[in-house]
Amino acid sequence: MKKVILTVGPRGSCKTTFCQKIAKERPDIVFISRDQISIEIFGNTSLNPYTGDIDYVMYIMWRRVKNNLPKSKDATLILDCWNGSPGDRFRICKKLREMGVNCIVAWHFIVTEKTCLILSKNKKDYQRDESDYRHDFRLFNSFLVDKNQGFDFIHKIDPFQLTIFPYSEFLL
Fold it and tell me: What distance in Å separates the CA atoms of residue 41 and residue 35, rounded to the nearest whole number?
């Protein structure tokens, strides 16, 4: 079964760091991060939506997903890609299904607004005003994360409890 785990959570909720730790401990899992691609190409994650840079990063991300899915019938891939609205999540899940993914798991990261602000300020590419992060956090949390968006399973993750649970529970 081809499985994709899609990270879902506000900026600064420790999605990338959490996934990097999992991928390091589980080399059989492919990890693809939209933000890492953006940093590779442009040196930061704060891209201007009017230049086409975001579209280019997404093109590269989807190409990497496509190139890494067929390697095994039982492939598991973690896709760390911003998907702030239910519509974003639905479109990503739809595209994954079109690529032959059988199971899509949402890792829904649950953290406080204060935690997101602290973690965001510690990022190298922190370039926005605190009120922007507060707005993003509240907007993200105004939307539900549910199976109608294309997920087979949804796991709520507290990224600070990484050493407490067995990873296999969340990889379904």
Answer: 10
Q: In the CATH hierarchy, which top-level class contains the domain 3-171?
A: alpha beta
Task: Work out the number of other CB atoms within 10 angstroms of the CB of residue 45.
Answer: 21
Q: What pTM was computed for the model?
A: 0.86
Residue 135 tokens read as: 């707005």
pLDDT digits (tens, 9 = 90+) for 8-55: 998 888 898 889 988 888 888 999 999 999 999 988 887 777 888 999
With CA atoms as reference, report the closest residue to 98 among 56, 65, 73, 71: 65
Where is 76: in which H helix or E strand? strand 76-80
Is 10 within 8 Å of 136 (Cβ atoms)?
Answer: yes
Domain boundaries, the chain: 3-171
